[in-house]
Fold this protein.
Amino acid sequence: MIRVGQKNYIISFGNYRSGIIFAQQNFDNSMTISCGRPDIGRLAVYRISLKVLIFFLLFFQFISPAIVAQDAAAIAEGKALFKANCASCHNPLQNATGPALKGSLARWEAAGEYKGKTGKQWLYEWIRNWNNPVKAGYPYAVQMSNWAASQMNLFPAFKDEEIEKILLYVDNSEVKAAGAPVAAGQPTSSTPENAKPSSDAPSIAVYLFVAFLVILVAILVSVTKRLDKLVAQQKGEAIPVTPSVPFWKSRKLIALLVIIGIIFVGYNLVDGAIHLGRQQGYQPTQPIKFSHQLHSGKHKIECQYCHSTAAVGKHSNIPSVNTCMNCHKNIKQGPEYGKEEIAKIYEAAGWDPDQGKYVREPKPIEWVRIHNLPDHVYFNHAQHVNAGKIACQTCHGPVEEMKEVYQYSPLSMGWCVNCHRQSEVQFASNNYYSTYEKIHEELKNKKIDKVTVERIGGTECQKCHY
Amino acid sequence: MADKIYWKSIEEKDNPELFYTNNENEFSSGSKVVDELVEGFPKSGNTSRRDFLKMLGFSVTAATIAASCEMPVRKSIPYAWKPEEVVPGVANYYASVFFSAGEYNAILVKTREGRPIKIEGNKQSIITKGGTSAKAQASVLSLYDGARYKGPRKGKENISWEQADKEVKSKLDELKQKGAKVALFTSTIASPSTKAVIKDFIAAYPNVEHLVYDPISYSGLLDANEQMFGIRAIPDYQFSKAKVIVGVGADYLGTWLNHTEYETDWAVNRRVSKQNPRMSKTFHIESVPTVTGYKADVRIPVKPAHEEASLIAIYNIVAGKNIPGGYSNPKIEAAAKALISAPGEGLLVCGINDVKVQLLVNAINLALRNYGNTISFERPVYIKQGSDAAAATLYDGLKNGTYKGVLFYESNPVYQHPRGKELADLIANAELSVSFANRLDETSSVCNYVLPDNHYLESWNDIEVKAGIINTVQPTISRLFDTRQFQETLLTYAGKPANYYEYIRQYWENNFFPKQSRYPGFLAFWDNTLHDGEVVLNINPATVSARNINIDDVAAELAKEISSYGEAQVKLYETISVGDGTYADNPWLLELPDPVTKVTWGNYIVVSPSFAKKNDLLPDLNSKEYHVLKLKVGEQEIELPVVAVPGTPEGTFGIPLGFGRTAVNHDLLKNGKNAFPLLKSGKEICGNVTFSKTGKTEKLAITQTHHTLTLKGLGGVRTRKIVKEATLEEYIKNPRAGNEDREEILHELVTLYPTHERPGHHWTMVIDLNTCTGCSACVVACNAENNIPVVGKDQVIRAREMHWLRIDRYFTGSEEDPTVVFQPMLCQHCDNAPCENVCPVAATNHSSEGLNQMTYNRCIGTRYCANNCPYKVRRFNWYDYAGNDSFDKKWGTGNDEGLASYQLGLREPLSRMVLNPDVTVRSRGVIEKCSFCVQRLQDAKLTAKKENRILRDGEAQTACQTACPTNAITFGDRNNKEAAVTALFSDERAFGVVEELHTLPNVLYLTQIRNTVEEKKV
């Protein structure tokens, strides 16, 4: 609900501004005309349009969701603390190395008082040093200490308010997790069959808004006409008699509708054609339910530990199964799917976990490719990762939060070029660029304040097409 | 000098106005586009409204279907177990050596994701020094040849190795017991380890005899050296030490012996500069024009008989004798005098395969004290070891039943033997016949068994082409098919462990490791040698002394033989592209225009222009119909179309060998006629020739008149300057000689356009016309690097060859004795490019690094750019030659099936493995052209960025540049003051082609300098 609201909010905000411009234009038009003939009718129109404007402002104020500021800052701090200290073992929503934490405060409180301390106090103690409540014999703590064989780390330095914030974050984490990637398009589905590229088509609210504006203009026009008539009557001028044609048969209306129709169809056709072959949000089902959220997000494994060639080669490799086996020789069970998914790695590697050795020829895992560039595009990972020092997430999105990876960016040429226009090159730190003497001069003379990729030719055709 | 008139063909010379009018239209020559396009429609001739509606309906439906399709699910399959050295997208290079069909190149093999895609020269080699030949460049395509044997065969039937081994071995045993002889027939084997394997094999089967035969034979030279010096080897010719070089029918810059080495050495003394205004002086006596002749300072055209006779004349002058039967003219005398004037610094080489001739040549060189100076036996050369007698031995032995069995390794006598046809029957009737060929050829198709060898890029081997200098061959890809190395097969039969890798290592440890002092341990020695690809061992220099031979008698005998030749002779010769025919099934080489005749896809008879005119044999250039002539030599007859080549003397009929293969993968590869049956007794010159006109004509795919730069300037015909040259004398006086007008031209140029900004690099190329030999290695290298499609004979006839780089050649002077300039022509990357202004969609535009960039996906195929390009370097894809758009293949409109690339399997997954993954494969309907190998530039820049340093000069190299054996091409960043190219760009010799158009080309040429004394007087 809130997610939808947020999205609407973002979109409506843009239109809200253009709405003002629209209204302003109406307003200006009336003003211009009224400058010549300052009479009552015109003033009335002025008043009406002003009212409309106010109504319109109020309307949008009304539908915009109120920002819930309460605790937002605390949750954010809690999140940071959680990521820094807890996330390597805990997930708020799922059992991992440690148990799922959401609702833990309620559970501890429900466990009741013991030795004069409330459940909440015992929980705080547990978090700082779990040994204390266990030694004290608090039953719930004893129960929890048997949850897993592994032992929890000690955090004696945590202050009460910090723990409070962490718990606040943990209890609110469901909302966060579900509403994660909204900025550049939401994955629309999770199966390859219906994973058609999502377009940025305007939502119904926009159409409604446009319709509203059209009606508004129509009302204003008719009101003006009537007022003109009234004014003319008052002045005793002759009223021009026009043959009455029902408005739906009026040539102007038909012409208008046709033009609108052409613009509408044309826009959608071109827009649709541009999006052909793009797969933003593409999230196919992979042969192994590999979770980047777990590996990269929770366990903080460096991207380039597995995708090791990203810094040296054109391609960022999908790790071969021997990379997986580096860890999974020992880690035989996952937090979510248990042994099932890891067994697929063993199958591919030809590893027998019981004997603890390789028994068959390895065979490659056939992953479904998500990021597809057309053949006539040359993209080099090393150029971006190594020379450009671009973070993986810039293009691939918050992979560390993705349970299943989807295509975060549109991978369209416009998207590439935009980034090349805005991103700075490592001009000062990489000696290669000392060749660009002229630009160094310009920097020195403060003619320019930064060197973008575009400045050194990064938007030319043959930087990517050859 | 300024009034020199250049021409590209005889037709242009005779009637320039008509010629230019005919060639004005870029896309018209020999092609009726519209007719061809409607071929697929009902034969009414024109496109009817119905057809139009059909097409419209089809297109709309197809577009709808294509648009509504979901994106395909693409798999991304990583290595199961990633090899440590492979990084996807990063090329690995492995040192190896190309030794095949009598050519030797030390190379680096570029592999991507484990597949070889390109051959580069090995710059560490002290023999070829990084130079390559066209054949070496093209050899990577033969790895992915559809004609390769996929496994052992018995007759036409596929069998397993177990069965093959069992049957062949039992047959060998049976023959051994019977005491019946078996011939192991090979071409030259330069591998010491392979020789050891053969020795082991012969030890196990003493009834086996090893016969060595080279189809392009140097038997005469070897035998002469044996007689004179007691060593059957080729001496080490040191062209870099020679001040005067006289060649007699020896194409040492194109095909003769170890020509890649000779090219690199020759260039040393041809690179002139103000600091070093010295040059060697080259004379060339030849009948059929070759690149060596055209490059010579003084070319002396004589008919084939006089090639030999001129040697007698030179001998007379040098030795002060007076043996009759010599042929001389003032130029030959000048050559002889030049040799005498430089004792110990001259070099006389001769390509005629005749002991008498070679003895004469040795005697002259001996008299001039060239041995020990420019000719050395310190490290004899083993590139050719064959004997003409071996060919006769095999034929006779099979005929009279001495040989009951025969094994063929790297030899194809059914095609290359003068009596090949008879041999085919004899082989088929032998009790055992085995071929180790790796792909289909004439001999293997008549053998009982085919036990396919690996391709050399899949093999282990070693090559010793010069005594003590050994190259390693290592596999660069795992075996594509069920093949086994020849050596392992022999080892199997010899009862030894069939592991040739271990065998070589053992052999090296025993024989080569003790002969070096650099590495203390064998492992280090082996690993480093493998890495470098070449090792120089300490050897005891061979000492030779000349024996006393009565040369006068030899010369007299030769004179007698010459006198029996009659008026006209046939000269059989090798071309740069297909050589001895081993690679005549390689589409890249077949489509490579011969630098001299400009013919692709087939052979012909080279005659003199005057002969052609006298007998009305000049072709119709527009229809490309050439008159067919019938030649009769002894009982042999051959019918081929006639090509008149300027500089060919009358009485000469030149016929290229190596064509007319029959056992090839496709009919399109059967081009021309086999001239080997004429090569009786291995000698290239055949006397007593009679000719008759047949009245027939045949189409030749000749690119002579394609893409002609019109010499017609604003001031009328032939006012444009395309090539510039001067003599050395003039150059010493004035370094601007021949190029005097450039300053004036540059001065007159004004522009309204703003100049482009070049904040970083400014890529520039300078080509030295003086050292460019026209050898065309660059053209094939460009093909391989840039995924340039093969279009086939039919398309070449329509002037649709796709080469981004071509070698233009310009004649000046008379038809009988012209001087020639070769000029590599590629996109000039003009700073004021005429093509850029006319593109309606800005598909071609300018980069901030000075590149004229072509964006295929933006191109809509108007071809305005090609029309507006004064250099004619833009190529249009009339078809989907590479087959990347499978739509054609599935829904083929009929036209495409006639395409060579389609028929030759060049669109099949196997041959597409040769494609460079960094370069887009173009589809139909777009223009393409030279990109200055932008993928290499980007790669070099990225390497510098990754290593946090500036880009060094010479790091970014184009494919043509690296392929060039003479380093005629210099490439670099003109913004870098220290770069070699920056200095050359402002050299006095530098000029741009048709600069007066104010195109501001980024490719400049250095004037050709000839070491001649006032040409007119000679």
Observations:
- Confidence is low (pLDDT under 50) at residues 29-35, 38-44, 890-894 of chain B.
- The two ends of chain B are 16 Å apart (CA to CA).
- Residues 49-68 of chain B form the longest helix (20 residues).
